[in-house]
Structures are given as C-alpha cells and as structure tokens.
Write the structure tokens for this entry.
Amino acid sequence: MTRTVTMDQPDERNRLDAMAQAVIGKPLNRPDGPAKVCGVAPYAAEYRMEGCVEGVLVTATISKGEVTAIDESSALSMPGVLAVISDERMVARSAQGGAGEAPVQQVRKVQYWGQPIAVVVAETFEQARDAAKRLRVDYRVDDDAAVDQHAEGLPTEPKGEPTVQGNLDRAMSEAAHAVDVTYTTESHNSAAMEPHASIAQWDGQKLTLHSSLQMLRYNVKELADAVGLEPDQVRLVSRYVGGGFGSKLGISAEGVAAAVAAMELGRPVRVVMLRQQVFQCVMRRSETHQRLRLAAHTDGRLTGFGHAARVSNLPGESFAEPVTQASEFLYPGENRDLRIDVARLNLLTAGSVRAPGEAVGMQALEAAMDELANDIGMDPVELRLRNIPDRHPTEDIPYSSRKYAECLKLGAERFDWDGADRRPCQRREGEWWIGTGMAGAARVHNLNEAQARVTISPDGTAIVASDMTDIGTGTYTVLGQIAGEMLGLDPADVLVRLGDTTLPPGSGSGGSWGAASTGSAVFIACEALREEIARRMGCREEDLTLRDGFAMTGNRRASLPDLLEGEEIEQTGHFKPGDVADNFAAAMYGAFFVEVGVNAYTGECRVRRFSGAFSLGRVLNEKTATSQCMGGMVWGIGSALTEDQVFDRRDGHVVNPDLAEYHLPVNLDVPHLDVLLVEERDPAASPLQAKGVGELGICGAAGAIGNAIYHACGVRLRSFPFTPDKVLAELPEI
C-alpha cells in the first residue's frame, strides 16, 4: 500500500515530540561507520565481477573544434587492448542536477579542453591507461574559443528576469551611508575523496551500473536516455558514496562510457576517472564578479539593496550559479536591484557545487555588510539585527520559522564577541596581527518528491528501503532514527537499505533536501503502519503508544511479534512538496564568529578560533548535524584562504587538476570548530518540522574570515581567496 501526502499547509501536529521512544535528535553513531573505517564497505569501483575489464577515458587537448580522426590502431596494437570507443551515445559533459535526461552527447564536437572524446578498454587498468595516452587523435581547431574568465568586456546574457523595486540609484545618492563595492570569487571544485567511478554489466536485456551518484531517481533516466534504453531496463546501485558535493548529482562521462563499452563487449567494464580527469571534465563552480550596493540611514537601516553578479558556463547550458539567492530574502531595502548575467566560455561545465548560490553570494554580501558597519561605526552584529525584515522583501509572504536574530545573539555570546571597537590593527602578538570578524549565514530551504517503503517483519524489527543515497551525510542513521521513533524501536532494530533503483525512488542527496524529504516519506509510511497496529490493538492511532518493541493502549500491552502473528506489514510513504513552498519563505539561518592571525611579515593568515550558531528546524541527529556544520565551516576556510581552480588563459586547461595543487584546508589549517545548534520547529518546512543542514555551514563563512583579516591588519581584500601574496601586497610597511 502507498500513502501519498502533499504538503499544501504547514504541519502543526508536532508528532515526533509526542512519540515515546525518544531517539530522534540523539547523537547516535552511524550504523555504516564501522564498515567504512574497516574498509569493508564497497564503493563503486570495488565490486568484484568475473571477467571485468578496465576502461580509461581519453580527453580532448584543444579548447574548441572537432575530432576529425581517431587512429584506433595506435591503441589496438598494444597488449591487452580490446576496444577504442568514441560512440554517439557517450556524453561530453556531466548532467546537471535533476536533469532526468542525457547531457550533451556530441563527444567529437569539442567545447572545452579536457572534454571526454573516447574510452579505451583493456584487460588491465595499466594497459588501458597506457593505450589511452598513446591514442592518436586529429582535430580541426576553431580559433574563437573564449577561455579567459576575467577578460574585460565579456559578452553576457541575462539569467531570468532581474528583481527591480524602487530606485536604487537614487537611494544610493541620497543615503547617509552607502557602500558600492565589487567582490570576485574563483572557480571551485567539489574535490570529493572518492573519484567518479562506475562498473557496468549488460545481460542483453538489463543494464546494471554500480556507480558513485547522488540522485538515482534522475540518474536512471539520464543513463537510459543516453544509451537508448527504457528506464526499467536500467538498474543503478550506489550504496556507499565517498562524497559528492554536487559533482555526482548527474550522470557523468565515466558511467556512460562504462555502459556503452559493456553493451559493446558483452563483459563487465569498470571506468574510474583519474584524479586529474575529475578536475578537468566533471563540474566546477563558476567564478563570480559581484557588485554589492548598500544604502542605509544613519541608524543603519537599509533603504537600498543591490546585488549584481556575472557568472559563466558553456554554450547551451541552462544552469547559472544563483549568486543572489539569499539576497532575495535575507535583508530589507525598499529600493532593490538583483540580477545575474552569464558569460559563455569554453571551459569545464559549471554546475552545482555545495550550496550553489549562497556559498559565494553570501561571503561577498556579508563582507559588504561589514564594510557598511565600519562606515557607520556600528557593531556588525547590531547592523544585521536592525535589518531583519518582517516579510519577504519582494514577494510579500511570511517567513516560516526564522531564528536569525537568535543565532546572531547566541553566537556572539558563545564567542565572547566584542563589537564596540572595530578599528583595525588594535592587537599584536609577536609578528601576528590578531582580529575578529563575523558574518550571517542563510541557505534557502528546498524539498523534493520522495518515496520510502517501511516493513515491520514478523520478529518485530523493521526495514526502511529507498533508492535515496548516503553521500557521507548520515542518511542511514537519520532514516533509522525516524522509523525507530515512530514505531517504538531501537534504531539498532531498523535496517536501512539505500542506493538501489529497485527500491522506491527517494529525493536523492542534493540541495540540503534529503533528510527532510525522504525522511518525510519514512514518516508517512510509519504513520500508516501505526494505524494498522492500532487497528490490531483495537484503539485509535492517537491513543497508541509504541516503545521498546511493544504496543500499548490503556491497560493493554502486546509485543509487535505477538500482534503480527507471523505476518509482515508494509507501507510505502510518498511525500510531495505542495503549495506551502509558495506561501512561506523557508530558509536556514546562522551566524559565524572567527578570530584570525595575520603574519605581519609574510601575509600568512591563520584561523585561530571559529564558532557557528545554526538554526535548521528540528535536529534529527545532533552528531550528524554538527558534523555537517563543521564540514561547511572547513569549506569556508578553503573558500576564504586557499581554494582556486585555475584555468590557463590561453587554452582553458586546468592548471591545478589534483589534490596536490588544488589547495584544500588540511588539519593544521583548521582550529577547533565550535558549533551551536539553535533548536526550533518549522511546521512549514516538512512534516518532520526539520529543514536542511548539509550546506548551511559554508554560506557566509568565508566572509567572516575576510572581515577578521581586515580587523586584524587593516587589509580589505575583495578578491577571494585571500592568499598570502595578496595580503602581503597590501600590508602596511613595518
């Protein structure tokens, strides 16, 4: 049986708080943790299949043009080589998140340096790798490739309609205080620990792909479309995913190449991207050029708010980094101008990287807010507190729950924030300038359709099943807790099965919607099961108590196995977002507080203390939620200080395509991270009253670090990341 619930109204019932098992929200360990740390959890490339052969992608060495000839004999003559495939079914780009159809497949029409153009298959990986390197390819090179992200005067096109209200130019000219600044951010790479990998099997009727993917409900359609099959002829398996951060939202080149090769050869084929290929041909976050215009009264209240961004992508791609997403709802200002323009460049596809939009938009906005606070001479916390609108500034709808002010106040108290004197260069310890900074955090709340099946077995244990994925976020844990709470079971007695398209389609992992969406489907299924148990107990569901494997009502008590009498009972929950999303502005909020040291001689910046207060609806698991916030804060350190995917301005190839040269924060870069979860219930967010957490911790974090650098040494940089060379060039003479 399937029960469908469409969320057209806020769910005020607050059911989870009324349950008796008391496991929801608890910091339970991950059931999949031991398997992962002991090395027995099989990731995509680690399944053993008899007769499996190895494929290696061949990528283009030009920026734009066409493959005119491939000398297959140059590879086929080498030992162990089985095939060279450059098939019209292969894909030249990764699918954008939620596409549900094949991405661009014209692999011989080259649009960027590093584009997949062929796959070489051999008996061993080493044979395939060597043959791929020696494959001779002839090109026709077009001389009009656009590869310079920072070129002046790039032609652009608008992304959608701008948000325009009032007269921002006049507000700026008449304001007591005004800030008009431009910030830039560089391209980022998801850089997940597990590279993109797939093993394909074809039995003549059914294609099975073990792959590292985030959103199977869409990916199965994308792969089927690419190789010319019906979706019910394709099975995807992604039980364990070693990080994705947006790069595995859509099907990518290695998965389709493995599928095509398996269908051609009749043998299992494994294709694992080299680390350099992950950086060169999967996905990047677009660079941004952002102009912030803020106008304020003498008391700091905003009268004008402008945020314009230029981003880039390949020709034909619809995705544009939604830089102004939080700017639409976070702060007031009756005179507004928000817009995004897109430049078309022959560079690696731009797509969703963790917290698309807010990750880079918030860090620039919060840096500009700090500049405004300095211009006014006001505590930056107070400036934000004075600019919390009563309703959505342009859509005139109410907010759902919103504890932005609480995050600002509690975070400041936790950090021991002193906003009284924000003059720079006030504290020196040896050769280090010391300063503090803060920033707000906001990330839009999303929901997605999801299904999950819950079965209570005759022995009283339960099974939760969905094709939802766990990309390291704790999905196995949280779904087990939801079912345990609703059914009165220890989560250890709940088996969670994920990552297989033979199971009901979940929401997928992306957009911070996984727990709230697929968790709601589990919740709905459990409600239906509770009704069946209540029927067997002869009571109303509202009068039923489930705890520790027993059902209780009035003076009656029975174990679940006794009630089931050897049967199993099963329900599928089907959750659909409804009108509530159009009637409320729902988002997650937070605040960052940071202390940095800036070396007066080298320009090196060190984060010394870092606190974050976050409000994200009901906390489903304190440990996994805290871990997600910490991970976002680490990303904030990288965005502020180190991360920059560099493209050669001559041909667009990635200059730093590996973890040695793409500088991620490491242990010595990250201090103790202090996370405060500000509890709330949001009836408009989901039936669970929970919102997302996976991306909030990055949104604005880099801005707080930049603000602290200014407070420490007086250097106000506006080009992220703030590497030592940039800081050193602006430091005062010693």
User: Anything to note?
Assistant: The chain is about 25% helix and 25% strand. Residues 63 and 113 are 4 Å apart (CA to CA).
